[in-house]
């Protein structure tokens, strides 16, 4: 398949299961019902945690709370498996919700698929701790890792807002002259807090997870008084990707952030980064969380594991 630039390869993955047709529709109806009810940030946090708690965890994974440069983290690893190589994971949640505990259904499947230990960052949430605290904490954890392990044995990953924080931390790491990791994996990245991309509006009726107005509120809570076009807030606007490691980006065509993921892939590739862009047709925002219901979720994890194995075998 022809690619826009020599360093960008694009792969289209079609839906193959009946679950992948039913689940997104069910999510759309659930979103319509939930978003028409009175709410608050505290309620949203509790609802999200409750929903994640209903997703079965992967067996055979050890969870160990720790700290890296003072930042709370959690090691998640196959029984008896020690680092390196390892994955540094930054969870999503719109900067305002989520934790390493709520995201165990997702990170556990990453550990299972890759058979690698994973260090999940329990960064502080906005609005209590707005920008730049969260990306600074991710950078602190990354700095701790590269002080203990070779960068070529580290894979950095993040989903949604976590992908934003992972990018912001690595952009700052590059600015400070720190080495880059072996690879970067971004799931449904939220990288434009200005909501300027067409899919924010065009796909709002398709995405059963995200709501444009609530996304804008979360962006303001996180950014506080900072300019939303700041590339450390909206990494889509960065011109500093030269030297970044090979990157895998997975996006779903039902995701209101679809255009952001695609634009980011093109932006990074134009600056010389080797990017693999996977376009998953009919998939909503971070469909990986529904792997217990949709085979396409399990398949997405396998693709991530394959990408990581290829990168680690390169060294």
UniProtKB/TrEMBL annotation:
Location of the Alpha/beta hydrolase fold-3 domain: 87-288
PROSITE patterns reported in the protein's UniProt record: LIPASE_GDXG_HIS
GO molecular function: hydrolase activity
Pfam family, one: Abhydrolase_3
Keyword Hydrolase belongs to the record: yes
Keywords: Hydrolase
Gene3D superfamilies reported in the protein's UniProt record: alpha/beta hydrolase
The organism's place on the tree of life at top rank: Bacteria
PANTHER family named in the record: AB HYDROLASE SUPERFAMILY PROTEIN C4A8.06C, ALPHA_BETA HYDROLASE FOLD-3 DOMAIN-CONTAINING PROTEIN-RELATED
Similarity-based family: Belongs to the 'GDXG' lipolytic enzyme family.
Protein name, per record: Acetyl esterase/lipase
Organism: Thermonema lapsum
